[in-house]
Specification:
The complex is a heterodimer of chains A (about 425) and B (about 250).
Chain A (H helix, E strand, L loop, with lengths): L4 H13 L2 H34 L1 E7 L4 H11 L4 E6 L4 H11 L4 E5 L3 H7 L8 E7 L10 H17 L5 E8 L2 E3 L3 H39 L3 H5 L5 H32 L3 E2 L4 E2 L11 H26 L5 H24 L7 H9 L4 H11 L2 H27 L2 H4 L4 H10 L1
Parallel strand pairs in A: 1-2, 1-3, 4-5
Antiparallel strand pairs in A: 3-4, 5-6, 7-8
Chain B lengths: L6 E12 L2 E12 L3 E5 L6 H8 L7 E6 L2 E2 L4 H7 E4 L11 H10 L5 H15 L14 H13 L5 E5 L7 H18 L2 E6 L2 H7 L2 E6 L2 E6 L1 H8 L4 H8 L4
Parallel strand pairs in B: 3-8, 3-9, 6-7, 7-8
Antiparallel strand pairs in B: 1-2, 1-4, 4-5, 9-10
Helix pairs in contact in B: 3-4, 4-5, 5-6, 8-9
The chains are: A alpha/beta (about 425), B alpha/beta (about 250).
């Protein structure tokens, strides 16, 4: 019944595996991309582990009693943690000293009356609470809030030595140098949601726009309209910039849609059900400011422009729309790679080499700018905008050169030719 | 514009090399004002390459070509103002209507709205497409599309029309229509046409002078009658076969 099946299958395999687009897309890309991602994320995890092995924690003792002293000694007995005693008259002052004078990631606040109330052994009538403040870094990576969990673990161990549940611990945050009642877990959830949403949206926009730009040049070739267009009494630059402007307008609409959507998206975090705590992001200083939105918009727009110029250059070498889209498709790797890494790893804890490589990729910058809108670290974002702008100007220069010569008509990517030449050599 | 010169095109010793292929190998010809000049040759002879060089799309590897005394390399933008190029496999933007396409193209050479409207009206007459100009190009047959493109090439009254296989893919009736348009256009405006064709009947009907081209060189040149007489044959096809040693 299936006579000749083997013959057909062999033919199919030859056809598919000899198509360089399929070979690169299906086999080479996953073989290269996944190990790179694994390497980078492992580096991030190792760096976080190292940090947790030498945790610096501030402690402000408003009690000065014997149990408070015993707690300090207990915490100091662990080699993986360094306790820095802070003298302050209130929590605000303690936080200020912690931020200015130490590199500590957490602050333990022992309240006045701690020893007295714990000694009574009646937590229902004499409740005692130790507050643990965690410095919010805004990285969103796996290291975020990890310190506070470790500190809580040590406090639990101390509790078990005293009596059944002699005091409570409450986790709080330090946001932009100010103490806040919002637990780090809630902030981590916000960051995590934001870190998933925005890079994915930006990546989709970049990929989509590149396909539009690539199609706009390649379809001129495929529909045989390019020759006529190039013979008209208009400059080649006019044609190039006309194409760029058309794609840019579409891309700009996309960038504006992202910013508006992001604004609404952040608005939806006014109430976080995660821990039953209401969070007003604006009140705790985590809602992006107009300047933040402006920088994010500029970063997204500039990256889009560079992506469009790159797509136009590459599609000029393709013979038809399918070819252009396939080649541009390979570029998705340099968009997706930073997206995945920033989603799953803390950028700042990555190995230096990985950070340099990621920063060299222009499409990393809008994703970092998205984080900066929350943390207020605008300098990195502005640097990114400037870098991508320089990159874009260079690309535009190459595109203009390409359009000014006959290469726009005669240039072709020849995988088959390359392979044959290699064999011959 | 030096349109008063007697020669519309002067090509001298044109050479074009693509990698290991020598597409043109010392091609020289002259086209007078008001003349329809034809390049005839087999596939790969170099006809399209020559037309693309004259149309400023590609650069010659060596040699020179001038259009109304403007060099196609150093004065490419001046040349583009004088010419209209119709590629063999040209297409039109399929999501525009025929009229929108003509208007888009006419805007590049129209100084004001009056000229623009006149140009589009002119194109409508040349194409003979009537009300179908309001329809999108993607609904056109191959013949209709070619008529639209011929109209586009001639509507601005270029001083030199470079037409690569102007009746390519057209049936007999459409071909007759297009040939008539070209002939009338030259007669009316006294300008020049450089065309290439496989169709010897078409060349005999249209061209005052013809160049037989093979392996990037001109192997014979003259009026169709001269070529037939010189080779003692009945038609240009036979003349060509004889010249290149096939008969």
């Amino acid at each position: 019944m299936l006579k000749g099946l083997g013959n057909v299958v062999v033919k199919e395999l030859k056809e598919l595996l000899r198509d360089p687009k399929i070979l690169i897309g299906m086999i080479v890309v996953p073989l290269v991309m996944l190990p790179i991602m694994g390497f980078v994320i492992r580096g991030s995890i190792e760096s976080t582990e190292e940090r947790l092995q030498s945790l610096q924690v501030g402690l402000v003792d408003f009690d000065h009693g014997i149990i408070a002293k015993s707690l300090t000694d207990f915490l100091n007995s662990f080699s993986t943690m360094t306790i820095i005693n802070i003298s302050a008259s209130n929590v605000d002052e303690a936080v200020e000293i912690l931020q200015k004078e130490t590199n500590a990631t957490d602050l333990i606040v022992v309240p006045s009356g701690f020893t007295e109330n714990v000694s009574k052994g009646d937590p229902e009538n004499y409740p005692v609470t130790i507050e643990v403040y965690s410095v919010f870094t805004g990285s969103g990576g796996i290291a975020e809030a990890a310190g506070s969990s470790v500190v809580s673990g040590y406090l639990e161990a101390f509790k078990r030595r005293l009596a059944p549940n002699p005091f409570q611990t409450v986790q709080k945050s330090i946001i932009k140098g100010k103490p806040s009642d919002v637990p780090p877990g809630v902030l981590f959830s916000i960051m995590y949601s934001q870190i998933f949403a925005l890079p994915i949206t930006i990546s989709i926009l970049l990929v989509f726009s590149m396909q539009i730009a690539a199609t706009s040049v390649a379809s001129e070739k495929e529909e045989k309209t390019l020759e006529t267009l190039l013979s008209l009494p208009i400059s080649r630059f006019t044609i190039l910039f006309g194409k760029l402007a058309g794609s840019t307008i579409v891309a700009a609409v996309g960038a504006i849609a992202i910013i508006i959507g992001f604004n609404y998206y952040m608005g939806s975090f006014m109430v976080m059900g995660d821990m039953g705590v209401s969070v007003d992001l604006a009140a705790i200083g985590l809602a992006p400011t107009p300047l933040g939105y402006l920088i994010l918009g500029a970063s997204v727009f500039m990256s889009l422009l560079s992506a469009l110029a790159l797509a136009i250059i590459i599609s000029a070498f393709a013979e038809d729309v399918r070819g252009a889209q396939s080649v541009v498709g390979y570029l998705n790797v340099i968009i997706m790679l930073p997206m995945f890494i920033i989603m799953f790893a803390d950028f700042n804890s990555l190995p230096l080499a990985a950070r340099i490589v990621l920063l060299a990729i222009p499409y990393t910058h809008p994703m970092l700018a998205a984080q900066a809108t929350l943390t207020g670290n605008y300098l990195t974002a502005v640097f990114g905008v400037v870098y991508v702008a320089i990159f874009t100007v260079a690309l535009l220069y190459i595109a203009a050169k390409l359009f000014a010569t006959e290469k726009i008509l005669t240039a072709k990517l020849k995988f088959r030719g390359l392979r044959l030449r290699k064999k011959k050599s | 514009m030096n349109v008063g010169l007697s020669f519309a095109v002067v090509a001298e010793n044109l050479v074009k090399v693509f990698g290991s292929i020598r597409a043109l190998d010392g091609l020289s010809f002259k086209i007078k004002r008001g003349e329809i000049y034809g390049l005839i040759g087999p596939n790969g002879a170099g006809k399209t390459t020559a037309l693309r060089i004259i149309s400023t799309l590609i650069l010659p590897s060596s040699g020179s070509a001038k259009v109304y005394d403007y060099d196609v390399v150093s004065k490419a933008s001046e040349v583009r103002r004088l010419i209209a190029y119709l590629p063999e496999e040209a297409g039109a933007y399929k999501n525009l209507s025929g009229e929108e396409y003509l208007r888009f193209m006419a805007k590049f050479s129209s100084e004001n709205n009056e000229v623009l409207e006149e140009t589009v009206r002119n194109a409508a007459v040349i194409s003979g497409l009537g009300d179908r100009l309001r329809d999108k190009v993607k609904t056109y047959s191959k013949g209709m599309k070619r008529r639209l493109l011929v109209a586009r090439a001639l509507m601005t009254k270029p001083k030199l029309a470079v037409l690569d296989e102007p009746t390519s893919g057209l049936d007999v009736l459409h071909s007759v229509h297009v040939r008539e348009i070209i002939k009338q256009y030259v007669k009316k405006h006294g300008v020049a046409v450089l065309l290439s064709s496989h169709n010897m009947l078409e060349v005999e009907y249209l061209c005052e002078r013809v160049a037989l081209i093979n392996h990037g060189r001109i192997v014979a040149e003259g009026t169709p009658e001269e070529l037939k007489l010189e080779n003692n044959v009945e038609n240009l096809e036979e003349a060509f076969a004889k010249v290149v040693g096939l008969a």
